[in-house]
Sequence to fold (219 residues):
Amino acid sequence: LSSSAALEGKGPLKFTSGRWRPHHNWKQIPVSGVQLALYRPFNFFNVFYRQIYCIENAHGQLVRDLDFNPNKQYYLASCGDDCKVKFWDTRNVTEPVKTLEEHSHWVWNVRYNHSHDQLILTGSSDSRVILSNMVSISSEPFGHMVDDDELSDQEDQHQEEKIKEPLQDSVIATYEEHEDSVYAVEWSSADPWLFASLSYDGRLVINRVPRALKYHILL
Fold:
């Protein structure tokens, strides 16, 4: 143990998860439990953290996990026992900006893709892993940007037509290889298209983002 911290908040604090915020020099840590709250150092000598904000009843029930968007500093995702995944803009935490309701039981894990933040992984006690494409609240809501000088007239017209297409937030794939509760999902740190999931029955499953989606994002 290198150091410990005392967290200040209302009433007894019960934590289920904590993640360092990848922005602001990694000096802020959001934690989840009955509430969803963000803390920052107040006294570096005593390692004391002061609460910046708190989302009361973020999920109505226990908040199981959270993750920050690596490319949009004010956005985070949370999940909980209400079977929902919610996306928040921390500049206004009165309401979530988006909500996913694809799972039928507790959602234990939510993870943003480190390179392509529209890709969201979730794992649940319903034994499923769900890959979602939340493109409308990603850092590239219109897809991969291409320099205009690199496009011919025909390609330019085609690109404009694609941009005019309505945005689609959707479930890309549902993976049902597990036979028990999925307690952890994680993206590979070396390959942005590879991810793993772990379940209560001791099963480790490794999957890839569907090739069609991969090329759609890249091209």
Remarks:
- Residues 144-151, 159-164 have pLDDT under 50 and may be disordered.
- The first strand starts at residue 6 and ends at 7.
- The CA atoms of residues 43 and 49 lie 7 Å apart.
